[in-house]
Amino acid sequence: MISNIQNNKKITFFLLFIITFILYFYGKEIASYFDAKWIIKYPKHYIFPISKYTSLFVKWLMDEATFGIFSFRDLTRFIAWLIQQPYNLILALISKGFLQGQGQDAVEILPPLSWISVITIIVSMALYTKDKILVALVAFAFFYLVIFGQWESSMVTLSSIIIAVPVGVIIGLILGILSYKSEILERIISPILDLMQTVPVFAYLVPILVMFGFGPVSALIATIIYSMPPMVRTTLLALKSIDPQIKECGLMSGCTERQLLWKVLVPVSKPTLMVGVNQVIMLSLNMVIIASMIGAGGLGYDVLASLRRLNIGVGFETGVAIVVLAIALDRLSQAFVNIPARKRKKNISFFKKNFNIITLFIFIIVIYLLSPFLPLIKNFPENLVFNTSLFWEELVKYININYYDNLESFKVTLLTYFMLPIKRFFLGIPWPWFITILTITGWYFGKLRLAFLCLVLSLFIVVTGLWEKAMITLYLCGSSVLIASMIGIPLGVWAGVNARANKALTVFIDTLQTLPSFVYLIPVVMLFRVGDFTAMLAVILYALAPAVRYTAHGIKNINNQIVEAALICGCSPRQLLFKIKLPLALPEILLGINQTIMLALSMLVITALVGTRDLGQEVYIALTKADIGRGLVSGLCVAFISIIADRIIKSGSNKLKDKYGMI
Amino acid sequence: MKKNPKLICKNVWKLFGNNPKDFLLKHNNNPSDDTIKKEGYIQAIRDASVEVFENEILVIMGLSGSGKSTLVRCMSRLVEPTIGEIFFEDINMGEISKKELIEIRRHKMGMVFQHFALFPHRTVIENIAFPLEVQGIGRNEREKSAMEIIELVGLEGRENYFPKELSGGQQQRVGIGRSLAVKPELWFLDEPFSALDPLIRKEMQNEFLRIQSALKKTIIFITHDFDEAIRLADRIIIMNEGKIVQIGSPEDLIMKPADEYVKEFTEDLPRERLLSVKSIMTKDQNSKYDVTVYENEKVFKIVEKVLTNGIVRVIDNNNKTVGSIDKETVSRFLYN
Amino acid sequence: MKNFFAIFFSIFFIGFSSSLSAVESKDPIKLTLHDWTGQLITTNIMAEVLKKAGYNVELVPADYIAQFAGLQTGDLHVAMEMWETTGRDAIDEYTADGRVVNVGSTGMDAIEEWWYPTYMKEKCPGLPNWEALNDCAEAFATPETSPKGRYLGGPVTWGGFDDERVEALNLDWEVIHAGTDAALFAELESAYQRKAPIMLWVYAPHWAPSKYSGEFVDFPPYTTECYTDPSWGINKNSAYDCGKPRGPIWKVASSMLKDKWPGAYDAVEAFTLDSNEMGNLVASVDLDGNTVEAVVADWMSSNEGRWSTWIK
């Protein structure tokens, strides 16, 4: 009976496969035979002008919508003003100084904190965690910023992080708590979060500009939108996974609802919540470049400007500044979660208890008072600034001149035998059949719900007339993910079995993920010219990380007893890996690939800058033409692709986990 | 002697599923087990009625899934019963406001949890003072009371430790301390010792009895361990599949098990160590034998006396003769 | 302590308030900065001139197209370079309801055309005449386009009708679109380092024509009819059988500028530079390594006669 079902399944799969291939090879002939060209190309006059309506709607919203006493525009401007205030304060404190007046009329009333003070504060925070390595790391990172002359820009960037992260964390926390309390709200919020995470930022930059005005505030809001969703999700997860007994204990102690929340639930889930905070920090720093396009300034602007001048070296140095800032803040925030609990000492005077803080405070005041008189304190001396940009430029030039031909032949081979067949495949399948296959896959993994989701979302792509671009997106994303997995999974396995490799790889991967892709995009263009291959390389570099991380995690988390059992049975290391570890880590690896797909899709928008012709380009064109509707609609198409991929892979992974009893 | 009931459960039901209230109403508030199953409901508690008397230790005993935890949570209103009434000191718990419920919990109830449920971010003293903190009692005052409790549960010197720095037994001492912080009248203990090693468990049971002998609370104690139930209980409730199978003293359960299910628990127990003379003696106030034993002595302690003398007189604590016990009765009891 | 701040405050404030002069409003006029040097220079010159007139000026980095949203709402006020060749659609769209206005030409003309480095002349002596393109298509070919020549066009958003042009002039060339101009010039830099073949879209004023030696291809000159009337030109059946238009670089402003700072509006309107002048300024920054501020200061001091008439 069972083998029968298995056989039936196999036959079904085989049949579907054959049909797909036939349609791929003879689709055109079949279409012309039946005189049904619509099979190959969705007819233009059936395209539903959703983007036009979207644009009109946003225009109406901004120009006419009103709540009676105040208009929608008043509301958004008020929000912008609200965010502007603390931002100005921080910016003044660490970067610009307190100014009186506007524009060049402005007069500095109080200078900003000296670089010495800022570094002292940050290093003291690291010292507080009692982690010597962290202290060294943080000090190194911030001295890098000083020595490479990035201080001013990085303080502008840091100010926006200092605002965006807490706002994102607080909003995320509140939304998480609300959706924990109300299941209806959870159901409403969840798909919105999906969209926030998958719609490319470029797609909503223009609407944000229209609503919140031009400048750093809009950039902050875009950053918050992009970085907040993980906070909501981790909050919800953290609250849900609290031991019910803890909650009951709070209730039995006579907590009111508010006491239960703030004295019990939130503090108890702090370690998990901090994971969310961490995500918010990293994602905010990922946004630095894009934010600078709409007026955030700072490091992002420096990267863009230097690359525009083809100043690869400066671009690289600035990019690294973003990386060190990200890593320092990330490690610092993680360390704060793990600060060993300290015993409360009793009967110590306030002064003694806060001795360190008071010393720090005095030191900063002294430096502050000295700063108008000692230029060294105010600004790091310019002649001590390091500059390696020439080195990087020469390096790229050297590779370019000496190895270009080798790289070229490598590229041509990969292009001809790997990428082009995939491209032809995706473009060759008639869209009705592709949707059918998607729906069947959805059915197989997630029954009616998932099948319905796949059908509706892919039909949306068809009726908006973006099918062909979506297929190119799939091809680029697909080939990048394939290669990223082929590189990432072995690396992950290596990291999973070797602790030292793990450490080195973690640093490598963190760098890849936080280094703005623009930094390597330009050298890659120089070596490989514009086109799909270059785009693919950039995507692979960016999307590699989760494949490595999840694989390593999956391998490391295998129950040790199972490994021992396998060893007792006489497994060789090789057998252990292939027969035990990899299969058991498979659900986790699948999730890693899922994340890789998500990152690849989010990167595709940026690769539009090197001339791809996919949905990313569509979004980018809409941005440069300030076409709100077109941007949002093509952004939604990207989001829908990733949502379909995400749902199918997650159901697959869960099915496997369920089978292995790992849930 | 009529004891005062502190807490009364009247016909409490708890079903899980869609609109269980309507379902019960449809079936006259008494659906059969089959109907419940057939219509996709899960029966957690079926028609439970209990009275808990002042100052007694009432143990609710059952295997996992028997509904004992749910019953206790209904009593403390952590879980809403589907139907049924619960009276605490003549207050109908179903009719009071949220605010009143919070007040009752703040002053009259305490609960100990199986997995301790300590707050990992608070020290021992902060954990124990927590119920006082939520009442809004000032720091000095609440820490003073907490210190008394810390002494009571034997954790002096560890008040500034964090939970993870303590052993399991110590952690549960904190849990016990915290539940006693408000000096509750009704004390719930939900499998408090199940997560501990056997040796520690025994030590904690003794500790528990010691504390109870000093405090004299009304206690509802859950366990899945029959030995523990017998050791601690004044009365035991046996639950199975959501139903109360039997309520009675340990002796009652051993001597007169209500059904096969209860019998299975009691069969292999060392009865001579659990039962007292009272439960097997012949009631005969006129017996005149010289050798005496007390009615509350456990049987194994008097076996030798009876075997040497053939028959002995049983007296109560006031030296009043209450009955007798002979060689045959003892042997039948021992070897049956 | 309090005293210290007070002194601090008063020194700066008094010192400054003396330089106030009579202008319509002391609110800052916001000029947008983009990411290419020429625009930075134009904008900085304008800013310096406005300052001399007593206006309060603020420079804000902004995206070339995205800035229109800000100009429309009055969050931004002046954009100094809006190229006919790349900004026409946006200008039309946003000036339609009058909230953004075209303040006239900067006096600079944009050139956009096919361009090749001088060393390619050896391999294709017929250049710069466009008719030579077909003869040496293979010299410009890459494995992906071979045997056709490879022409690296601008981002599709720039328009330019290169695909149509190749078709109309019957060229054996394939048009590849770069995504951004950074990518465009990265390829040029790379090819130039290797002295490798390249033909691409270059525009001026820009630093590239100064940094790399090369020439624009001579196509049949642009006329309006060429783009609209198929029968015009060499190919009687097709439009676009000519070179690209060369158009002015416009200044645009928010309508608020005229209402609130009419004097400043006049100054912006009067501003002119010419293309060669700009080419030299750009080269001085990008090739000689001077800062924008220094180059602008230099220009200000040597051209006082010109800019002082703008703010009369």
By CATH reckoning, the class of the largest domain in chain A would read: Mainly Alpha
Give the distance, in angstroms, between the N- and C-terminal Cα atoms of chain A: 27 Å
What proportion of the residues of chain B form beta strands (DSSP E)? 15-25%
Global mean pLDDT of chain A: 83
CATH architectural group of the largest domain in chain A:
Orthogonal Bundle
Mean pLDDT of chain B: 88
**Quaternary organization:** heterotrimer
**Alpha-beta content class of chain A:** mainly alpha
Largest sheet of chain B: 6 strands, mixed
- Helix-strand topology string of chain B: EHHEEHEEHEHHHHEHEHEEHHHEEHEEH
In DSSP terms (H or I, runs of 4 or more residues), the helix count of chain B works out at 15
Shape of chain B: globular
Query: Spatial order of the strands in the main sheet of chain B?
Result: 6-7-8-3-9-10
**What count of domains describes the coordinates of chain A?**
2
Radius of gyration of chain A: 27 Å
Largest interface: A-C, 61 and 63 residues
Structure description:
The complex is a heterotrimer of chains A (663), B (336) and C (312). By secondary structure, chain A is mostly helical. Chain A folds into two domains: 71-88 and 113-338 and 353-387, MetI-like (MetI-like fold, Orthogonal Bundle); 392-428 and 464-660, MetI-like (MetI-like fold, Orthogonal Bundle), CATH 1.10.3720.10. Chain A contains 29 helices and two strands. In chain A, α13 packs antiparallel against α16 (312-337) and α26 crosses α27. Chain A starts with a helix and ends with a helix. Chain B is of the alpha/beta class and 336 residues long. Chain B has helices at residues 20-26, 33-38, 68-75, 98-108, 124-128, 130-134, 139-152, 168-180, 198-215, 226-232, 250-255, 260-266, 271-274, 299-309, 327-335; strands at 5-16, 42-53, 57-61, 83-88, 91-92, 109-112, 186-190, 218-223, 235-240, 243-248, 282-283, 292-294, 311-315, 321-326. In chain B, α7 crosses α8. Chain B is globular, with a radius of gyration of 23 Å. The two termini of chain B are 34 Å apart. The mean pLDDT of chain B is 88. Chain C has two domains: 24-107 and 248-310, Periplasmic binding protein-like II (D-Maltodextrin-Binding Protein, domain 2), CATH 3.40.190; 110-228, D-Maltodextrin-Binding Protein, domain 2 (3-Layer(aba) Sandwich), CATH 3.40.190.100. Chain C has helices at 2-17, 37-52, 67-73, 84-95, 120-123, 162-168, 181-194, 208-211, 224-228, 255-260, 262-270, 275-286, 292-302, 304-310, and strands at 29-33, 57-61, 78-83, 100-117, 149-153, 173-177, 200-204, 214-216, 247-254. In chain C, the strands form three sheets. In chain C, strands 3, 4, 7, 8 and 9 form a five-stranded antiparallel sheet that branches. Chain C has 312 residues and is α/β, with parallel strands linked by helices. Chains A and C meet through β2, α8, α15, α20 and α24 of A and α1, β2, α3, α4 and α7 of C.
